[in-house]
């Protein structure tokens, strides 16, 4: 498979830049680490593309914005925060072995950032291109959403550098997603002397987990999955408090509203227990219609390319919901996002860099 033109991209140089970024750990919410990471991302962009990459401060850490100048036409969208805590690198250092690059964040999504920058560097004319690399995608994009939406509307099209789907497929659709936190308040008592005097928050939470799980509609793409629970203090105390965290994914129209209403309507099963619910389906679904135009361009560049709708969310959900043409999964080919076996396929790096360059070139001359 080849792009519309032959483009020389140095895989060795891409691996050097990837090593630089991976070895600066950047867990979400760690402002000091994210500041160092943002500066490194900016330095890579400036060294390969010229110009100035601006750090935009936020409560979640610095976002990085670069513009080639001219009328904005395409937004290259990524993030530099990762899910891995400080110290992961010591246990799982950056390595290149057996055709794979490994290390925290290589696939999600530092490899995609590096590939896009090196691909853009092959273009003689980059006017109208912007790059936005945010600091809080992994934790909901609360501080960056407004900026993402502003630049997406200004540019009119978005290429998202999240890792590819299985087999290198682009991500042409995504479910909407959100997180809910259900807090239960009961009353403590001695579990041996007077258990009936208490209101057992753990038992109430167990009832709520069953009610919540029943909200799922997998037949229409809605999954409701309790993921984290906590309760109690000591083994001889009736627990006075419990919490349940729930992951929600929706696809069909109206499911966001149904799920949010159902969580708001949760009621206690035990007398005197109280329930508080926080959360929402914060990322709207990304319909496949949002990617159709750009995916057709990608198919002309790489005819064997496939597209898949996936369950995970990204910042592309926000831009697609605005009606801005959005194509996702343009980053690294690999797998193991958020896991210890995360990896990037080195052989695919040049082709993905070429694909981003070809898309940008085609979009600018459309």
Please summarize the sheet with the most strands. Answer: 6 strands, mixed
Overall geometric form: elongated
The count of DSSP E runs of length 2 or more, i.e. the number of strands, is 16
Low-confidence stretches: none
Please list the strands of the largest sheet in the order they lie side by side.
Answer: 1-2-6-3-7-14
Radius of gyration: 23 Å
Total of DSSP H or I helical runs spanning 4+ residues: 10
Can you walk through the features of this model?
This protein is of the alpha/beta class. 32% of the residues lie in helices and 23% in strands. It is built from ten helices and 16 strands. Strands 1-2-6-3-7-14 form a six-stranded mixed sheet, with helices on both faces. It has a four-stranded antiparallel sheet with strand order 4-5-16-15, with helices on one face. The protein is elongated, with a radius of gyration of 23 Å. The chain starts with 10 loop residues before the first helix and ends with a helix. The relative contact order is 0.19. The model has no long low-confidence stretch (mean pLDDT 96).
Please give a quick description of this structure:
The chain is built from ten helices and 16 strands.
Primary descriptors:
single chain, 366 residues, four-stranded antiparallel β-sheet, 10 helices, alpha/beta, elongated, six-stranded mixed β-sheet
Q: Secondary-structure blueprint of this entry?
A:
Elements: H1 11-22, H2 31-49, E1 53-56, E2 63-67, E3 74-79, H3 88-91, E4 95-97, E5 100-102, H4 106-120, E6 129-134, H5 145-155, E7 158-160, E8 170-174, E9 176-185, H6 201-213, E10 223-231, E11 241-250, H7 255-264, E12 274-283, H8 292-301, E13 307-310, H9 316-321, E14 326-327, E15 334-335, E16 343-345, H10 349-364
Parallel strand pairs: 3-6, 3-7, 7-14, 8-13
Antiparallel strand pairs: 1-2, 2-6, 4-5, 5-16, 9-11, 9-12, 10-11, 15-16
